Amino acid sequence: MSATVTETTTNPVPVVVAADDNNTTSKTHIEDAANDKEFQSVARGNRAGTLKLRGIPTFSDPAAKRQWMKEHMAAAFRFFGKKGYGEGVSGHISMRDPILKDHFWMNPFAKHFSSIKASDLVLVDAEGYVTEGGAQLPINEAGFIIHSEIHKARPDVIAAAHTHSIHGKTWSAFGKPIEMLTQDACNLYGKVSVYEDHGGIALAQEEGEQIARALGKDNIACILQNHGLLTVGRTVDEAAFLFFSLDNACHSQLLAEAAAANGVPKKIISNEVAKYTADVAQNHHNFYTEFQPEYELIVEETKGRVLQ
């Protein structure tokens, strides 16, 4: 485990940072999140107000940030493998490089999600060609077509995740958004679009452009009709958690539809309540933190191999 990992992968639980604390790592972790009232409102600290949720860490060293991002990306793939999101060579996560802004990281072609390590990730340029600095392995062409257009259209997107998960792709066959059936579904309220013009495997730039347009300017997820799910985030952790959350919502939707078809009426959460819940949940620090229990479990289960 690298020094960077030691500094940046402590538990995402509240920590006390006293006024005279010289631990700059802890200060760095809460620097941006500490003053985010919506994020801090989800947990309760001490009366003195010094016990804060950490949120997304910040870095002064771009190389350290890159390594940290790669480690979290590798863990996201391992998590996807555990959830059974892989199918053959399909599925990919992309992540914008913090140093070379027009480059991004992707998973190598035909490598199982459950075996990916940080060192397996591939760095590609703006045209999708493998470059030095990452693993020298080919990538999925369709994955590049989809993800490169998303990154072009959405400068705010650091990471994008797409797989053919069974519940996601099954619900996508209806070409409909999810309903607010559960409190967890409200994580996604008002931020999920539907791409209705499935054009087959994405080997043409036009298909990637259409998917990026369907995602829209500020949505965090898109249901690709007859295809699967797509989520985006300011961190790879956020994109991974949102994918998990959306796939679960699709699973719930399918179960509810089956019950409704047999005469059991659905009760939909009102727009007012869904928006109230979403206003708290839809926070980049919150979605990042939601993934940390899974990240830490992956690191523990792999004895740190995922970070290598």
UniProtKB/TrEMBL annotation:
Domain annotation Class II aldolase/adducin N-terminal: ranges: 71-254
Gene3D superfamilies to which the protein is assigned, alphabetical: Class II aldolase/adducin N-terminal domain (3.40.225.10)
SMART domains: Aldolase_II
InterPro entries, per database record: Aldolase-II_Adducin_sf, Aldolase_II/adducin_N, Aldolase_II/adducin_N_sf
Annotated protein name in UniProt: Class II aldolase/adducin N-terminal domain-containing protein
One cellular-component annotation, GO: cytoskeleton
GO MF annotation, one: actin filament binding
Highest taxon of source: Eukaryota
Pfam name, any one: Aldolase_II
